[in-house]
């Protein structure tokens, strides 16, 4: 662990020239430096680990080789993100839409940003680092239905102002989260005629003749 920075010191290269220009425009450079020195750290503290252990979802940002960012939602049972140690997180990659945008980006560029939001407590936590994916990770047996395990090697951890986080309560966790007791149900979109002939062999029995894509994605009015 690096030495604790002085009050007006920020982690090296944490703010870019673009950050600085906007901070200077609004007169917040000194505040940014102070908050950086107080809140940004390079390993998971006990409070961070406890916060992550309570969550059942997060958002992850990644970049492809062309510089295009991508943001994805990841959900699971509460506590599905494992805090391996003070500088490592791990989570399962379940069966999805087959695009593998996040894991593909990780395999090529590795840099990721994770945003955990607790809507009930109106709190959030950011984790920045480098990630790797594996189909043979020792943790994969911990997650029934996981295709791969993603490990994130932590570089920066910090909390954010919670004032604009909407207060919401969980009604129920997704019925599609894989579990040991039963197989996960088939999502409606896999029954669309438009994808019937493109489904992998493992999903071939899901092929259907439905045509309402908006309904299949829960977007119909």
Automatic annotation (TrEMBL):
Region annotated Disordered sits at 201-221
Q: Where is the signal peptide?
A: none
What Pfam families does the record tag this protein with? PNPOx_N
Positions of the Pyridoxamine 5'-phosphate oxidase N-terminal domain: 46-143
Please note every region of biased composition (Basic and acidic residues): 212-221
Highest taxon above the source species: Bacteria
This protein's name: Pyridoxamine 5'-phosphate oxidase
Q: Which organism is it from?
A: Methyloceanibacter methanicus
């Amino acid at each position: 662990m690096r030495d604790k920075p002085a009050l007006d010191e920020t982690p090296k290269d944490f703010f870019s020239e673009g950050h600085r220009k906007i901070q200077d425009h609004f007169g917040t450079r000194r505040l940014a430096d102070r908050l950086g020195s107080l809140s940004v750290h390079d390993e998971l503290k006990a409070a961070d680990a406890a916060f992550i252990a309570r969550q059942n979802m997060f958002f992850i940002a990644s970049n492809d080789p062309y510089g295009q960012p991508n943001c994805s939602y990841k959900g699971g049972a509460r506590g599905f993100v494992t805090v391996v140690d003070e500088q490592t997180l791990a989570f399962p990659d379940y069966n999805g839409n087959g695009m593998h945008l996040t894991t593909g980006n990780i395999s090529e560029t590795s840099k990721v940003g994770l945003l955990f939001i607790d809507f009930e407590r109106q709190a959030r936590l950011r984790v920045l680092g480098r990630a790797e994916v594996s189909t043979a990770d020792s943790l994969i047996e911990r997650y029934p239905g996981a295709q791969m395990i993603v490990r994130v090697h932590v570089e920066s951890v910090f909390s954010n102002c919670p004032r604009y986080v909407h207060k919401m309560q969980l009604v129920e966790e997704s019925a599609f989260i894989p579990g040991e007791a039963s197989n996960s149900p088939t999502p409606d979109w896999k029954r669309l005629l438009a994808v019937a002939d493109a489904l992998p062999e493992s999903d071939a029995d899901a092929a259907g003749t439905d045509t309402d894509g908006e309904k299949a994605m829960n977007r119909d009015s």
